[in-house]
Every structure is written in structure tokens, then in C-alpha cells.
Amino acid sequence: MKPSIRAWPFESRFLLDYAVVEERHSYLRRFPATEQLPTLSKAINKEFEAGLTTRLATTNGRADHWRKLHLKDAVWTFCQVLNNARPDHLQVVPYYTPELVAQIALVQRITESGPGGLLHRFRFFRNDDYLPDVYLSGSRPVWTTHCFDRYGERSAWVKNYAMNQMLADMLHTVMIPVLINGQSLALAFSVANTVAAVPFEIDEQTDDIRLLTTLSPDGRSTMEPTDALPPLNWHYGPEYKMPEPFTFAHAAHRQELLKKWNEQTPQVTPHDIENLKRRSWVSMVQAIPHLMPDRGYTPQTRVNFIDGIHGPSVGTREESGL
Predict the structure, then answer these.
(1) I need a surface site. Which of 10, 82, 149, 180 has the fewest CB within 10 A?
(2) Domain interval for residue 68
(3) Cβ distance 174 to 248 under 8 Å?
(4) Does residue 1 belong to any structural domain of this protein?
């Protein structure tokens, strides 16, 4: 008997009476279904642009950095607050053009079942086509279900949407290789003012990097620095050339993460997402310029790709430091 296709009502005033469905092929599932991606992406882009001023919505590569920062924070707010807990289970993430213009990307989750359980990959879509896939220093990341489950228990601050939260937290920060309990290689990264660590293994046949589980600084595991791997970078597309020299302060960041792990630094709970979602999208966008100085932004602040590599990890620095 063929299993029924699961469907969820799409939540948008720009696309009514529409259901999001899975696409199934034997041991492979795609969500949303590939044929739905253009329709869903365009509706979500309309939702996003409905809250923007005309000036902000028409930001392009020639815009000044203050405007790009404003747009970047608007995209992040839309993805992580307004859309983090969608009942239709859709995920959206920021995508950055080579000119550092932030856009909304719709996520397609690809789940494959096998002897070791479920494995998850993600592709990103905008308007009518796929965007370049995200890689980590030339390797394609693959998540186990166990990795997401443990993230929800130990690190995610939106407990019911651990997959959404982990994808955003990992792809938009710096991955630092460390050694757990003196034997297991892991990737450490900042999350909610503390640190998380994800042990991994490399698939010898595909060269994929398989992310196995999630650890938090609870006193049960040790974390040490390691030189087994160089600093790692997220990037769009499979081609990767290690930067020389690195521009990000990887060593200092590693020490900060080790310190938080050893001190078992607890998470700082952010604002309740349900309270934030009660605000209108227009009011959220209008508030962003007033919050930017509190985030350390000045007219001299510039957006930059970490280590100069076109990818989902971006940072800011003052013009004097360029």
C-alpha cells in the first residue's frame, strides 16, 4: 500500500488555499516538493518585501554599507523571528550575493534513509532556481537526525524547531575544529552566548562531512584545541581555496569557545519568540535602524565575508580596519 503524502497548509496571505507537500522517491524524501519551490519562494519573498520601504527593497550592490546592514538585519529578523516557528514547517535562511546584499532563500530538506538511520541535506532556492549549495571547506555537510534531536535538548532556544535553529546557528558562524574527550574531532561554534560542539566523521567514499550529535558544556566532556585540521569556512558552491592569510581571528575565537566550555557558560535566553511574533512585520523593520547602534554599528561599519570567502558567514568591522 502506497503511503499517503503528508501535507501542511501554507501560511501566507499571498498564497491562499495552498498545501505544502513532501516529494517521495523510494528511500529519498524532499520537502517541500521540488515543483512547489518557485511558487512558495515567490510568496515568501512578497511577505518579506511587504514590510520594507521601497528604498530598502531596491537595495543592490551599489548601496552603501549602512543600507546593506539594515537589509541584513531585516532578513535575519524575518528568518529567525517571523518565520522560525511556521506551522507549515517551511524553513527560510539568509543568502548573501557576492556584493553582500542579503536575500531570502527557501530551504528544501532532502532526507535519505539507510542502515544508519536518516540523513539530512539542504538545498536553497530563490524565485525560479536553486542557489549554490553550501559546503564546509570543500565538503558537503550531512546531518543525522540524532544531531538535531540533541541540539533541541541541549542548545536550541526555540525547542520545538531545533532543525530550523541549528541550521541558522551553524551556517552563519565560524566553525572551530576541537578535540572532545581527547579522541573525537568536533566542530565548536557560538550559540546563544555559549558554545556547542558537533562531533563528525568524513565519509571516505563521498568526502561528505557527517555531523553526528550535539554536545553542550555540561561538565561531562572535555574540549581541547587541535591542529589536526586548519580553520574551516562555509562557502557557496563546491570549489574551495583555503585563504592565505586568514583574516578572521580564529585562534582568539577558539580560546573564547574553550573558555566558555570549561566554565560551563549557560545560555542567555533571548526574548520569547511568541511575544516577538505578535508584533507586525512592518514595526519590526522600522525598529531595526534604532537598534543598530546598540549592536555596535556605526556609519563606518562595513559588512564582510569571513576570510573573504563568499558564503553564509558574514561579519562586520570598522572602515579603519580595512
Answers:
(1) 149
(2) 7-321
(3) yes
(4) no
For residue 173, how far is the Cα from the chain centroid?
8
Instruction: State the total domains in the chain.
Output: 1
Angle between helices 65-77 and 281-291 (to 10 degrees): 140
Which amino acid, one-letter code, is at 315?
Answer: G
Report yes or no on 215 lying in a domain. Answer: yes
Query: CB under 8 Å to 290, separation ≥6 — which residues?
Result: none
Which is nearest to 296 in space by CA: 313, 276, 316, 279? 316
Whether residue 2 is contained in a domain is answered as no
Minimal CA–CA distance to 97: which of 288, 236, 228? Answer: 236
Contact present, 230 and 174 (Cβ < 8 Å): no
Q: Give the integer Cα–Cα distance in Å for 265 and 138.
A: 32
Whose cell is 567514499? That residue is 205
Q: How far apart are CA 232 and CA 23, in angstroms?
A: 33
pLDDT in tens, 227-262: 889 989 999 999 999 998 889 999 999 999 999 999
Whether the Cβ atoms of residue 167 and residue 174 lie closer than 8 Å to each other: no
For residue range 8-62, list pLDDT tens digits in order: 999 888 999 999 999 998 889 999 999 999 999 999 999 999 999 999 999 999 9
